[in-house]
Amino acid sequence: MSPNRPDRGFARAEFEARTERAQQMMHAQQLDAMLLTSEAQVRYFSGFLTQFWQSPTRPWFLLVPLAGKPIAVIPTIGVAGMRSTWIDDIRSWSSPQPQDDGISLLLATIRELPRRFGRIGMTLGKESYLRMPARDFKLIETDLSELEIVDCAELMLKLCSVKSEAEIDKIRYICELTSDSFNALPGFASAGQTERDIVRAMRIDLLQRGADHTPYIVSASGPGGYGDIIMGPGDRRLDDGDVLIIDTGSVFDGYYCDFDRNYAFGKAGDIIKMVYDTVYRSTDAGLAVARPGVTTTDVWLAMWKVLEAGGATSNDVGRMGHGLGAQLTEWPSLTATDRTRLEAGMVITLEPGMDFAGDRLMVHEENILITDSGAELLSKRAAAELPIID
Amino acid sequence: MSPNRPDRGFARAEFEARTERAQQMMHAQQLDAMLLTSEAQVRYFSGFLTQFWQSPTRPWFLLVPLAGKPIAVIPTIGVAGMRSTWIDDIRSWSSPQPQDDGISLLLATIRELPRRFGRIGMTLGKESYLRMPARDFKLIETDLSELEIVDCAELMLKLCSVKSEAEIDKIRYICELTSDSFNALPGFASAGQTERDIVRAMRIDLLQRGADHTPYIVSASGPGGYGDIIMGPGDRRLDDGDVLIIDTGSVFDGYYCDFDRNYAFGKAGDIIKMVYDTVYRSTDAGLAVARPGVTTTDVWLAMWKVLEAGGATSNDVGRMGHGLGAQLTEWPSLTATDRTRLEAGMVITLEPGMDFAGDRLMVHEENILITDSGAELLSKRAAAELPIID
Question: What CATH number corresponds to the domain at position B183?
């Protein structure tokens, strides 16, 4: 049975609510406005959903003032599209124009905004970057010297980390159809094919099930295990005794899933079965612990204890899960030191992984929603035993 | 007949040649090193090709010194992959680590480099952004106060704009198979389908022909024409008398095509036929003019004259073509004022577009290689008359 496809887009009330929540946080941080430059940020407040960000040439700006609706300062090529959103103050310039790519228009727009605190937020800190030339950022700082430019990265990370029902529906849908595709994989993957063949077949399967596209789908394989999880697919041909992992971030209406599945070909040895079981139980431990009030570090510890008892010595991934939604990976991170308190409405991944046999890895991943009563699986739980493809 | 698939990856000599060319230019600009942070830049010098850049969480750094091989300063999750490239000096830290996400390791590495000019290049100017927190960029500037940080955006744009034979082979291959897919489209698209249906079918067709993936595929349609070229596909159902455009950037081994095709459904009126013909002849004018020594502005002018004679009054796209290769759009831009001199080995798009009937657009696009003798088409030329899908 195919999962129910949610409506595309959002009701206007969604953007009003996002903007209001942001403005409350901006008030607390004494910001007159936030100046945003990245795809996910511009989309969050406007609903402007386009693949055109693939072109790195032109900068795009969205101003969120302390009161009222966001203001778009964008290249003319985007005006027709931005007009279809709830934004009505749209200012544009013909871009590319390297001498002044929107900067004077942006500065004039910022100068029109009411001043209360004399502070403008930009995302300067963790997990952020400015999608504009650094030279132009300096120009803004210099030209607006009467204003203080302060970091609002954390504000934005926190704001976006708690999802609305409508956002969760989109993530749940892409998680469900991707789970179905993983479950169907033994029907279209077999020994003798290359990693690239299998990944291509899964891309097509995901499209046929209703995914919009698959920006991320990597694989790794090897006899008895794999040693890397971000480089594939390669041209390696699957053989009896191999273990294959596929990890995918597929998208529906701008929202991602991000989880993986492992498969053995022909047969599975005792070591790989044992390691799979350890990492599976580690995920269980994370599922049992994750709930509002508990920290990312608590969840990390619960998962790590199981891995360590199973013989893990390290984890090159650097974390064992992260936020998820409008981007493949979002704040927070499940690490030993992150200590972010989970809240109802957060969508995160549980991604325990361990080394074994020297240079091998075993990584599992599930996507969950934090609810008032605990963790709700959005992905369909991986098989308790390593699936074998005959 | 399927086009011949080129080998994946590059010979080591390719990276040596790229590094040497860069070092010559660095010498002229008196740079001790370049510090690079973006996907295309890191890949250009290392060959490190991964979809993992979809995760915005972790910064990645590549240092190109004035002599010798590049040095990677990267999260541990990338070490296994980077080891498979020609880079051998790989330094890593466990990321994410918001308090110090690689910055102290990066600073220590920069301090080890030989000093001759006391200047480090970073891409700060046009068509660039730093894929790292702006706060950390400031830390680098402050901490390395004995060094001057200068803009090397133009150096990198120029360096990457002239393609090697191996790069051109990859672009030619993706252009050819995408041309074949566009030519096959009338066989899988028909009135009654939605834009989204048709784009999904074309995604699958591209995968089946050998594209690795399609990061960019937009569509627009409407009775007698369309008014936007970056927002779709939408759920609009194609009907008799509609005009549909699909524009795609598909990828083989990290290299893009970027061109579009127009189709009419059932019938085409005189106005749309005339506008199609005008834009087609505008492309011809560009093809006739483009060659080494001619500027982007000359090509723009040649194309614009035909459009203006055909009744064009404006072009919201902001340019009529651009560089192409490791990214969907690269420097330079074909505008009235760009004035970049074309060189043999550059791959660019010709993308004339015009407004008509108030709010309608007609855009064509071809991908070409600049050769010693002129322009060589990499895409198979669009039909001289607007194709009609019955």
Answer: 3.90.230.10
Q: What is the ipTM of this complex?
A: 0.96
A97 and B CB contact within 8 Å: yes
In this predicted model, what pLDDT tens digit does every residue of A211-227 receive, in sequence order? 999 999 999 999 999 99
CATH number at residue A108: 3.40.350.10
Q: Kindly report, residue by residue over B56-82, the tens digit of the pLDDT.
A: 999 999 999 999 999 999 999 999 999
What is the per-residue pLDDT for B82? 97
**How many folded domains does chain B comprise?**
2
Both B239 and B307 in one domain: the answer is: yes
Q: Cα distance from A142 to chain B (closest Cα, Å)?
A: 14
> With a CB-CB cutoff of 8 Å, which residues 270-309 of chain B face chain A?
none
Query: Cβ of B55 under 8 Å from any chain A Cβ?
Result: yes
> Which residue of chain A comes nearest to B360, CA vs CA?
A80
Name the DSSP letter for residue B4.
Answer: P
State the Cα–Cα distance between residues B162 and B183, nearest whole angstrom.
29
Looking at the structure, tell me whether residues A336 and A379 fall in a common domain. Answer: yes
Does a structural domain hold residue A382? Answer: yes
What's the domain range around A130? 12-159
- Residue A152 to residue A172: CA distance in whole angstroms: 29
Q: pTM to 2 decimals?
A: 0.97
**Which residues in chain B have their CB less than 8 angstroms from residue A58's CB?**
318
- CA A212 – CA A106 distance, rounded (Å): 33
Q: Is B43 on the interface with A (CB under 8 A)?
A: no
Residues A106 and A224 in one domain: no
